[in-house]
Amino acid sequence: MAVLPTLRQLRFLVAVIDERHFGRAAEVCLVGQSTLSAGILELEQLLGVRLFERTKRKVSPTPVGRELAERARTLLREAQDIVELARAAQAPMSGPLRLGVIPTIGPFLFPRVLPRLRSAFPELKLYLREEQTEPLLARLDAGELDAAVLALPYPSRGMETIDIGVDPFVVVCPPGHRLSRLSAVGHDDMAAEDLLLLEEGHCLRDHALAACALEGARRNVAFQGTSLYTLAQMVANGLGVTLLPQMALDAGILRGLDLVVRPLSGEAPFRRIGLVFRASSARKETFRRLARALEGFLEEAAQEKGKTFTAPARGARRSGAARLDS
C-alpha cells in the first residue's frame, strides 16, 4: 500500500500557499519554521514533485503545488467535519464556534445578544469575525468559519440558510428637512433627494435600494459612507438623507445627533437576517439552536417596540421573508 500524505503535511502546504512565506505559515500552523520546512520537504519527496519555487526573496507555488493545495483544502474541511460530527453528537452547544458577521449587523446585534447567548449556552465559545459578505462567504467555504450571520438575499452556493428575522428600513433626515414634515415618506419623495449610501461592497446598500424600490433614485455619489455611523454623521451635517435599518436605531446609532426618523409609506420594506452555513456541515443542530436563540431575541426586541413579529417558517434553506409590520 502506498504511503499517503498526512493531514499535518497538507495543512503545511495550504498555509504556505496562502501566506507565500514559510515563516508566516509556520506561525499560522503554530510550529517552528524548521518543522514546517521539513514537513514540506517530506511531502515533496513522498509525492515526487516540487511544490514550490524557492528564492531568497519569495516563495512561489508550482502549478502542481497550487492544484494539490486546492484538493488538500477539501480534505482538510472534510476531516474537520468528522471531528465536528463527533463533537456535535456528544454536546451540540459546546466547544468553539467561529461565527462571521457583517458590519451592518455585528455592532448593533451582538453587544445586546451575547450575554444572553452566554447564559443560555455556557459551554459554547463564540469567536466573532466582522467582515463584508463576500469575504465572509469565502472564509466559510474554505472552512475558516463555521457559520455567518448575514443580510439576505445574497448568492451563496453550497450553503444552507435559516432565517432568523427581518430588519425594517427607515428614513433619516435633518430636522426642518421637507421629509421631516411628512408622517410617512413615499418612494417618489425619496427619489428626489440626495440619497446617502454605503460605499460599494456593503450588501446593505443594494438591499436598501431594492427593498425600498429606489434603484433609480438620485444618489449622492460624491459622499459615500464607510459605515452606518458615518452615514448618520453625514446626514447630521446636512449632506443628504439616508436609509438605516431599525436594528441600528434600536442600538442607539443616532444618540447625541439631532436627526428625525420617518417610516416609509406602504408595506414596510425590510432586509432578511439569516444564519448561513455549509450544506455539508456536521453541526446543523448547533446552528438550528443558535438561530432559534437569535430569532427569539429579535422577536422580543420587536415586541418591546410595539411591533408584530412573524417568525419565519421552520427548517433549513428557508425561502420567503418574514415581516415586521409597523
From TrEMBL:
Keyword Transcription: yes
Example of a GO cellular component annotation carried by this entry: protein-DNA complex
Record bears the keyword Transcription: yes
Gene Ontology MF annotations: DNA binding; DNA-binding transcription factor activity
SUPFAM superfamilies: Periplasmic binding protein-like II (SSF53850), Winged helix' DNA-binding domain (SSF46785)
Region (Disordered): 305-326
Occurrences of domain HTH lysR-type (ranges): 5-62
Highest taxon, organism lineage: Bacteria
UniProt-listed InterPro entries: LysR_HTH_N, LysR_subst-bd, WH-like_DNA-bd_sf, WH_DNA-bd_sf
Keywords tagged on the record: DNA-binding, Transcription, Transcription regulation
Family, per entry: Belongs to the LysR transcriptional regulatory family.
Protein name per its UniProtKB record: LysR family transcriptional regulator
